[in-house]
Amino acid sequence: TTTSFYEKMQREAPPEKRRLGEASDVIIIPATDLFLRCADLILPWLNPQELAAVSQTCKALSLVSKSITTHRSLDAARSFENITIPFRNSVDSQRYAYFVYTPFQIPASSPPSRQWWGSESTRPSYLDSVSERGRFGVSLVDESGERMCGCECEQCEEGYCKCLTFAAGMEEIANECGSGCGCGSDCSNRVTQKGISVGLKVVRDEKKGWCLYADQLIKQGQFICEYAGELLTTDEARKRQSIYDKLRSTQSFASALLVVREHLPSGNACLRINIDATRIGNIARFINHSCDGGNLSTVLLRSSGALLPRLCFFAARDIFAEEELSFSYGDVCVNGENRENKLNCCCDSSCCFGTLPCENT
Ligand SMILES: C[S@@+](CC[C@H](N)C(=O)[O-])C[C@H]1O[C@@H](n2cnc3c(N)ncnc32)[C@H](O)[C@@H]1O
């Protein structure tokens, strides 16, 4: 009976327990183990025709699985972007990295949902409509589309919009038109809202894991992508970081939790934004750190209609095809107290500190 079979399995192989968080324990039995155990119990009862049918099905499933793997390695962006972004690996057998794709910032969600990732020809049509409203993250536009803030601009001059402003003297903070403005999607002050338009690829490196590379010449100032992921409270970010630190100590694991601190003009306060692209994110989750600042500049972009700014990457100089894209994750200061959790930096720049910046450093 099913019960006695299940009990037998429990007796023979105590399931591995892995603690992911305080609240939930997850029991994991490797799928192939389970499958082989079931097969061992059921297959001896089959007649030759039934056995042949089972064997044919497995061959067919194996072929379909291989083609899904190949397809996944061809586009890390899963058709969510205007272009395909392939994985390239000549280092080990990993064909692609698995994560849930979001082109925009989204509120934290738990647990991460599964996401369809097959070939374009079998893509269910209900997946085609990516909500443009999502681009603005947490919105200040109400349900009826009524604007609660925004500029009055309705049409901008050729290649120039008078609403494009940088915070006084700070090129790293800027404003874009958004869902709260009167202008439309063709406004020239919406550069980062049109998605990725430069050729990119994700390349495997022995030391750093996956890395984002240019797959074409990218001119200085061109928009690359934003850093999309789950927006977390600081408490949740700290909890997740400690889980990620533990996972890293027992297995090869790369986290992508970025903390952005924006010092407000008063000088007395600081806005902290935690974006976690580890489980749900976009292509920016593959950008590695470089101690020399790398070749990307980061801009905190506010769009009218949006509550929080978005972190966007632009080419800091002309970037050639086959160059890795990188930026500085922050400053490094290693002392006796924070020595334990530190990660080695392999950026290879002449001014490398040898340590990857993190909250403790
Ligand atoms: C945002 S992810 C970048 C993508 C990551 N390499 C991967 O394989 O998914 C950040 C993680 O990449 C690795 N990483 C980033 N920059 C690195 C560097 N300069 N040297 C070594 N590892 C680096 C670290 O594991 C870090 O936690």
UniProtKB/TrEMBL annotation:
Keywords: Chromosome, Metal-binding, Methyltransferase, Nucleus, S-adenosyl-L-methionine, Transferase, Zinc
Gene3D superfamilies per UniProt: SET domain (2.170.270.10)
PROSITE patterns from the UniProt entry: SET
Pfam families (UniProt xref): SET
Keyword match Protein biosynthesis: no
Limits of the SET domain: 198-330
Major location (coarse): nucleus
Coiled-coil ranges from the UniProt annotation: none
InterPro entries cross-referenced by the UniProt entry: AWS_dom, H3K9_Histone-Lys_N-MTase, SET_dom, SET_dom_sf
UniProt key word S-adenosyl-L-methionine: yes
Subcellular location: Chromosome; Nucleus
Entry protein name: Histone-lysine N-methyltransferase SUVR3-like
Source species taxonomy: Eukaryota, Viridiplantae, Streptophyta, Embryophyta, Tracheophyta
